[in-house]
């Protein structure tokens, strides 16, 4: 029977990770997978995470199962972080999931059950796994224009024109902050226009937020999600703790489903629990418990926020230095967008051929769509990348 299986397409981002590992060149630069790295190229365990883990080792008395939705204290702490007081908690159901991807997957499954004919509108481009999971579940994907190849900002008029095609059966998927892969984001006025469109169409918004704290700050990055939550009747949110807590391999995510009517919340919660049970039963707990420990301890929380802020500012500095170096080499401002983008990524906006050329000639690994992980850079590699970009003729 196993011989009936067909080879699956390789995930572009994970495939690149493997290719990078195999490259023997000492000068290779990894700008691929979305993992934060410090100037030494290390993905550190954050101080508050270490401290919370020590606390757990000392104090945890059992590793018996939690609830199907995970520990309610985790959902509550995460809702505080994401939503503050923007939404009526009585309307909110939430479940812990294996990472942000787990939350995305569970959300799409929920969509399929709620609206079997739903189409999911995704930005063009979006994180490739959005499209892959939707295809796997047999859900129709509609791409909306997002990235302006000229300005490397958001093509907002194109986006709104395309979203106008959504109906009350459909879902509009939005990146809460730090758009992946482009790094180009909506401002709050534009978010308000999207909310008005959603309200007019009666469709369901879904926010994927995986980089809170990596863009303009923890509160600033949550502002669009809170704006949406305070105005729409229904909302799905898929959140990840992988990046902002640096606990990638612990698989720590949360799915939030906000309904219009608090009386229906127990039914929604029951469906989230049921979905978890069918797919993996109980969600992983260690990462969630670490996050809860940090968020509910003022000292640990302050230290986590301080380290996250250092990380964010470090990435902004790298952006600025890269933009400055390119400005120096090209004698033009055409790479200024790199300093305007926010989050871990920037889409350079060049062709797969030139991306491949930089990989072959300069051992620079960026995703084929020209997405660069800015955190993969340091003082030494910025001039190398800038020169490679100029030499390639981008
Ligand atoms: C990325 O976009 O690189 C990350 O979200 C890692 C992944 O799972 O693709």
Automatic annotation (TrEMBL):
Domain of life: Bacteria
Cross-referenced InterPro entries: Aminotransferase_I/II_large (IPR004839), Asp_trans (IPR000796), PyrdxlP-dep_Trfase (IPR015424), PyrdxlP-dep_Trfase_major (IPR015421), PyrdxlP-dep_Trfase_small (IPR015422)
GO cellular component terms, semicolon-separated: cytosol
Keyword line: Aminotransferase, Pyridoxal phosphate, Transferase
A Pfam family the protein falls into: Aminotran_1_2
Residues covered by the Aminotransferase class I/classII large domain: 27-389
Cofactor(s) this protein cannot do without: pyridoxal 5'-phosphate
GO molecular function: identical protein binding; L-aspartate:2-oxoglutarate aminotransferase activity; L-tyrosine-2-oxoglutarate transaminase activity; pyridoxal phosphate binding
Record's keyword annotation contains Mitochondrion: no
GO BP, sorted A to Z: L-phenylalanine biosynthetic process from chorismate via phenylpyruvate
Keyword Transferase: yes
UniProt similarity note: Belongs to the class-I pyridoxal-phosphate-dependent aminotransferase family.
Subunit structure: Homodimer.
Name of the molecule in the record: Aromatic amino acid aminotransferase apoenzyme
